[in-house]
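Q: What structure does this chain adopt?
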Amino acid sequence: MRRSMSLFIVLLLAGCALFTQEHYAVFFQPQSAELDGQARSVIASLAEKAKQRSGAIVTVSGFADPGGDVPDNFKLSALRARAVSNALIADGVPAARIRRQSEGGVDYAIDSQESRRVEIKLGMP
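A:
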């Protein structure tokens, strides 16, 4: 009994150590929510990983660059997040496992290209 319990604990710890949260990003042209080929490739790869990990949650966060009106930036970042979410669903990730949010326009002392993005996290609930 003692030996099987130890083995169970080791396997449980090993399983936890093997799955960590993964981070991805896809980028957009100014004032666009259209996915390019590179973004679709990243999303397809992520979708395969998500499908292999039952119960994993995909968090999709849309961003816009700080230029423009605040309401317009929130709308654009929401459209970008929706585009990525829809692509994940089309690639077989169940919609119930996707959490989507809009961050609006942000200024992180990075260039505008890096601000025009969607961050995607694959992790456990």
